[in-house]
Amino acid sequence: MFSTRHIRAGIVVLCCILYGTYQRPEMMTEQLLRALFQAFVPIAAMSFALTWWSVKRGYVSGGGTIKGLKSELKHISKAQSRDRKQQKKGRIKEGNQEKSPKTDVLHKKWLKFGGGFYGVVAFYTYLVIEIQEIVDFVTAYSGFSGLLSNLGPSLLIRFFIESLKNFIAAFVWPATWLSTVPSKYIIIWLAAAWFGYQLGTQLALRQRGG
Q1: What's the rounded Cα separation, in Å, for the pair 31 and 181?
Q2: Mean pLDDT of 181-188
Q3: Other C-beta atoms within 10 Å of 150: how many?
Q4: Do the Cβ atoms of 65 and 205 come closer than 8 Å?
Q5: What is the mean pLDDT of the chain?
Q6: What is the rounded distance in angstroms from the CA atom of residue 80 to the CA atom of residue 103?
Q7: CA-based Rg of the chain, rounded to a whole angstrom?
Q8: What is the C-alpha separation between 40 and 190, in angstroms, rounded?
Q9: Do the beta carbons of residue 113 and residue 171 sit within 8 Å?
Q10: DSSP string, 54-95
Q11: Considering only CA atoms, which of 98, 127, 103 is closest in space to residue 55?
């Protein structure tokens, strides 16, 4: 499942973990557990779900490899970007040229964030930020009833602005992560996310092959 490149990366991360454990064992243990349950597990699950759904719906074939999946996602993203630009200019005419593959909301959001590993982590980061934002909004208005009673144009505008800010924060997720994770431990979080993506995607592609 993992290539020599993956094994080498794992060895580098392991060396960093051993060094960090030697320096501050309590802090390292805490960061390892957080990275495991807040990065590796959810990103592995999300990678599996997005890849499995994309293959099941026929958006991609995957080719049985992550490289093949990445290539197909890149092609779809470029095609959809081209169509959006041409629609704005009014240049698309029915039946005159090939249309980009149809995709659903989840797949489009994944592609908006770049697809592949970067897109999965960005999508995951966006969901986490949005959920936290909703909880904060509900708490600030003492529950859903209070939120609904105060619902109006100003609150909707605020929702829109916050959602846009959250999208940007998710798109530049490495910087967002650095704002919450100590810089000397960020490699552990990145490694956890990367291995989670590799595992989840490979399992989904193997399901396809099976």
Answers
A1: 9
A2: 85
A3: 13
A4: yes
A5: 78
A6: 10
A7: 20
A8: 9
A9: yes
A10: HHHTTS--GGGSHHHHHHHHHHHHHHHHHHHHHHHTT---TT
A11: 103
Task: Quickly list H helices, 89-185.
Answer: 105-112, 116-140, 144-149, 153-171, 173-178
Q: Which of helix, strand or coil describes residue 1?
A: coil
Contact indicator for 62, 210 with CB cutoff of 8 Å: no
- The Cα 54–Cα 203 span in angstroms is 14
Average the pLDDT over 180-197 and give the result: 88
For 68-109, how does the pLDDT look when each residue is reduced to its tens digit (9 = 90+)?
888 888 888 777 777 766 666 665 444 444 555 566 788 888
Q: Residue 42: in which H helix or E strand, if any? A: helix 41-56
At which residue do the structure tokens 């599996």 appear? 48
**Do 157 and 208 touch, CB atoms closer than 8 A?**
no
Closest CA to 24 of 184, 205, 207: 184
In single-letter form, the type of residue at position 37 comes to F
Which residue pairs, CB below 8 angstroms and at least 24 apart, start in 75-81? 76/100, 76/101, 76/103, 76/111, 76/115, 77/111, 77/114, 77/115, 80/108, 80/111
Residues 135-178 have pLDDT tens digits of 887 777 776 776 677 777 777 788 889 889 999 999 999 999 99
